[in-house]
Q: What sequence folds into this?
C-alpha cells in the first residue's frame, strides 16, 4: 500500500509538472518548459535530464537500481519526462525565425529523446513495471508511430521484440529478431542465441496460440532451422579466416 501511494504521489506531481511544461511550450517558452521538467527530475530522482540523455542507456538503467533491483516503475516515470522533453524540442524546431542549423539540432534532440524514452518504456514493461499508472502501452505505440521509418538501435530492437512476444504478437517479435540476426558478423553483439530462445519458447505453445500470434508452428520450426544455417555459415567464415 505504501509503495502504491508513493507511486501515485510521484505521478500526480509529474502530471502537474507536465501540464505546466505544456502550457509553457504553447507560449513558446521552451527554456522554461525544459527547466520545469528538469527540476522535477532532480526532486524525484536526484538526477538531471542532461545526464539521462548523455549516458549510455544501460548506465542510466543501472542508476535506478536500489538494493539490487531495478526500480522499473521509477524508470518509466523518468521515461515519461524524457518523452515530454522530446515534444518541447519538436515544437522548438517549428518556431519561425530560427536558422536551419538550430532547427536541425532541435529535431535531432527530439528524435534522440523519443528513442531513449521508448527504450526505457520497453525495458520497464519487460521487467514487470505497472502499465496502468501511465498507460504505458499507449505511449509505446505512440512513439513507434512517430519514429516509423527510422531504424531502432539494436538494444531497443531487442526490447521491442521481447515486448511483442509478451503481447502475444509473435509475428512482430520474429521480425525484430530477424533484423537483429542480420546485422552482420562484424557487429559487436550477436543475437542468434536470443532468437533461438524465442523460438524455443514458442515451441511450448499450442497451435492455436501460435496461430493467434500470427506465427504458425511450421514458421517457428523454419525459424529455428534458419538460425542453424546462419550459425553454420558464420562458423565457416571464421574457419576460412
A:
Amino acid at each position: 500500500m505504501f509503495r502504491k501511494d508513493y507511486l501515485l504521489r510521484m505521478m500526480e506531481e509529474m502530471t502537474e509538472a507536465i501540464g505546466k511544461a505544456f502550457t509553457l511550450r504553447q507560449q513558446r517558452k521552451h527554456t522554461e518548459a525544459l527547466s520545469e521538467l528538469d527540476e522535477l527530475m532532480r526532486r524525484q530522482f536526484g538526477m538531471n535530464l542532461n545526464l539521462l540523455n548523455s549516458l549510455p542507456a544501460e548506465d542510466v538503467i543501472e542508476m535506478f537500481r536500489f538494493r539490487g533491483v531495478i526500480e522499473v516503475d521509477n524508470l518509466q516515470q523518468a521515461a515519461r519526462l524524457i518523452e515530454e522533453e522530446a515534444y518541447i524540442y519538436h515544437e522548438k524546431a517549428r518556431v519561425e525565425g530560427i536558422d536551419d542549423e538550430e532547427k536541425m539540432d532541435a529535431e535531432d534532440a527530439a528524435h534522440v529523446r523519443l528513442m531513449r524514452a521508448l527504450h526505457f518504456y520497453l525495458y520497464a514493461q519487460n521487467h514487470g513495471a505497472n502499465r496502468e499508472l501511465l498507460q504505458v502501452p499507449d505511449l509505446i505505440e505512440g512513439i513507434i508511430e512517430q519514429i516509423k521509418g527510422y531504424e531502432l538501435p539494436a538494444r531497443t530492437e531487442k526490447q521491442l521484440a521481447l515486448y511483442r512476444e509478451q503481447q502475444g504478437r509473435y509475428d512482430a517479435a520474429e521480425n525484430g529478431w530477424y533484423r537483429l540476426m542480420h546485422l552482420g558478423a562484424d557487429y559487436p553483439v550477436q543475437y542468434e542465441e536470443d532468437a533461438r530462445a524465442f523460438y524455443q519458447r514458442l515451441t511450448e505453445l499450442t497451435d492455436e496460440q501460435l496461430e493467434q500470434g500470427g506465427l504458425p508452428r511450421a514458421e517457428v520450426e523454419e525459424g529455428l532451422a534458419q538460425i542453424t544455417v546462419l550459425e553454420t555459415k558464420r562458423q565457416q567464415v571464421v574457419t576460412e579466416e
User: Anything to note?
Assistant: The chain has a mean pLDDT of 90. The CA atoms of residues 121 and 136 lie 7 Å apart. The radius of gyration is 21 Å.
